[in-house]
Amino acid sequence: DPIVVTTLTPISWHLDNFRHIAEQLQHSTNEVTISFMYSYRKTRKNIGAAAQQFCFEWREPDQEESLDLVAALTGIAGEHGMRLTVCSQAMFVVGGAEPAACIDAARLSNLSGQALSAPIKGNRPDCLCHASRDIGAYYTCPHGCAYCYAVSGSDAAKANYAAHNPASDLI
User: Cα(38)–Cα(28) distance, rounded to whole angstroms?
Assistant: First the structure.
């Protein structure tokens, strides 16, 4: 999550890479969540700059390609004891895939052994997440992921990261 189709990561690469990851995670998890990259303004800017710098092209796969990929990934997930869920993109819930609840109060209750309750309060259409609070902040991650919607330029993020005090009472 997210799936980004480029000349370096074509559909075939995603299938091979996912199969490898699923093999490694078999018996360690029972769910995998995917989505296709949302083409936010910051994302287009960042991935466009990365494409120019590293000489690749990117594109949004068409509906048929996306549906075929979800069906194939769902099959691979099933072969390795996992169910495939799709985050906030109901149009891609096909072929045995299920809608995702990335922040799932019932699952968190099971994991923690304590009853948790929260209303479903997604942050975008088709989001089935339960209410939660982000603890991060925009422009603080220095990793420079090209698909990131939280950072449009790495200079501010690197400066904020450098100014972070791990001994502070605040994050």
Answer: 28
Separation CA 160–CA 154 (nearest Å): 10
CA distance readout (Å), 144 to 45, 53, 54, 96? 12, 13, 14, 34
Question: What is the H or E stretch that residue 22 is in?
Answer: helix 11-25
* Size (the chain), residues: 171
Two structure tokens written together for 93: 């819930």
**pTM higher than 0.90 for the full model?**
no
Report which of 135, 98, 4 is spatially closest to residue 57, judged by C-alpha positions: 4
Q: What is the pLDDT of residues 108-142, one digit of tens each?
A: 999 999 999 999 998 888 999 999 887 878 888 88
Residue 87 identity (one-letter amino acid)? C
87, 68, 60, 74: which is closest to 4 by C-alpha?
Answer: 60
**Cross-strand pairs, 32:** 84
Using the Cα atoms of residue 107, residue 150, residue 68 and residue 78 in order, give the sign of their dihedral: negative
**Rounded CA separation 71/98 (Å):** 11
Strand partners, 27: none
Q: Which contiguous run of DSSP H or E holds residue 92?
A: none
